[in-house]
Amino acid sequence: MSHQENAGPFLDRKTQGNPVRVGVVGAGKFGTMFLAQARTTLGLGLSAVVDLDPARAADSLVRVGWPAEQIVPVSTAGELVDVVSRGRVGVTTDVGVVLESGIDVLVESTGHVAAAARHVMAAVDAGVHVVMVTVEADVLVGPALARRATEAGVVYSMAYGDQPALICEMVDWARSCGFTVTTAGKGTRHRPIFHESTPETVFEHYGDEAESLQRDNVNPRMFNSFLDGTKSAIEMAAVANATGLVPPEDGLLFPPVGTCDLAEMLKPASEGGLLGHAGTVEVVSCLETDGRPVEADLRWGVYVVVEADHQYVHECFRQYGIPTDRSGRYAAAWRPNHWIGLELGPSIAAAALDGRPTGCPAGHLAEVVACTKSDLSAGQVIDGEGGYCAWGQLTTAEAARQQSQVPLGLLEGARLVRDVRQGVVITSDDVELDADPLLLELRGEMAVTES
């Protein structure tokens, strides 16, 4: 491959012999997908992979094409600097080693809320930009982390490739064009019965895909979070906090809508659509409620619906084949897929080269609260996202405060102090929390800012 075939935004750093140095925390699916492309991105230098299981980190690197002889265990920053100078990649369990080695950007992809918050705090203290893949942490304490990053003069960014950052990009595009954003969101696989899914039953709902998923040894709890609606709520909360779009108080509708009907259906009910209000977020399902596939579904994609206020623009929509509702006033644009960790590079480039994020929380507008999957008993311990006890429901931060609803991200390990019926959102009166002190500290900072 010639340099011209893969020039990209990092090429000047390659030419200067000063690649953008990146450390990755978490060698799971997203992290591994990024590692596959980091190997072929000129001017981007992978310094190290941090994982609690160094063997898994090394295996992930080898699996995506890194030569085994280039992968070196390290335990100090000095060792890592030496390893990188010799064109090799370090593997370690200590994120501090990587931060002290002089990297430019830390990619946080552990999926663990408390750990992610600590990693971001450490990076900010070290003057290192952060790309936050752990959306759960971003939704729970992202506004506080973003504020601290700004005060330190570093970038805190959503991860391009994940749907929230791509949605934010579409919202920015629409607003830059002078359109009013009616709604924005993504597609997924959803039916109402999925809200009761557990790690034990999750693969029963994946049909023909189940065998492949189980063969790949995927985490049932993680995939259950995608299926039961929790991950969709988390991702739409991130979008709301970054864009100012106001989420629905009563949760996502998950309407079965294909691309041909986005503009018709995802407009306010007062205009003949499904939405409670304009300027919101919503997730569309690729399945009808009875399980039949939706025509022209958007399962893997993202979309935006905009409103134009002048007849001339409506006519332009028609002339150029832009999909609209029947009135011609609302129009839809979409991207049919997202490439997850394979396309993380733009976030790293934006942070390291341009000093800007690809999506960042601007405020605390949305909350993800916990709706019970079954009747729960006093003394029972809540198992958190994707588990057996509750699924994540989207609401506004203000509604959650007024009703004393506890964010899902604080509930793992909490003990119920009284019985709670199925289909009820857990409140502060229902539980004794066992949350990480740092998360409580950051939530406290958000509360002070909001007051």
How is this fold's topology laid out?
Layout: H1 11-15, E1 20-25, H2 29-38, E2 44-50, H3 54-63, E3 71-73, H4 77-85, E4 89-92, H5 95-99, E5 105-108, H6 113-125, E6 129-132, H7 135-152, E7 156-158, H8 163-176, E8 180-188, H9 210-215, H10 220-227, H11 230-243, H12 262-265, E9 280-285, E10 302-307, H13 311-319, E11 330-335, H14 345-354, E12 366-372, E13 390-396, H15 397-402, E14 415-416, E15 431-432, H16 437-450
Parallel strand pairs: 1-2, 1-5, 2-4, 3-4, 5-6, 6-7, 8-9
Antiparallel strand pairs: 8-10, 10-11, 12-13, 14-15
CATH topology of the largest domain: Rossmann fold
CATH hierarchy, class of the largest domain: Alpha Beta
Name the beta content range: 15-25%
In DSSP terms (H or I, runs of 4 or more residues), the helix count works out at: 16
Structural class: alpha/beta
CATH superfamily of the largest domain: NAD(P)-binding Rossmann-like Domain
Low-confidence stretches: none
Average of per-residue pLDDT values = 95
The largest sheet, given as strand count, sense and whether it forms a barrel, is: 7 strands, parallel
- SS elements, strand count: 15
Shape: globular
Helix content: 25-40%
Number of separate structural domains: 3
Q: How does CATH name the architecture of the largest domain?
A: 3-Layer(aba) Sandwich
| Terminal Cα span | 55 Å
* Order of strands across the main sheet: 3-4-2-1-5-6-7
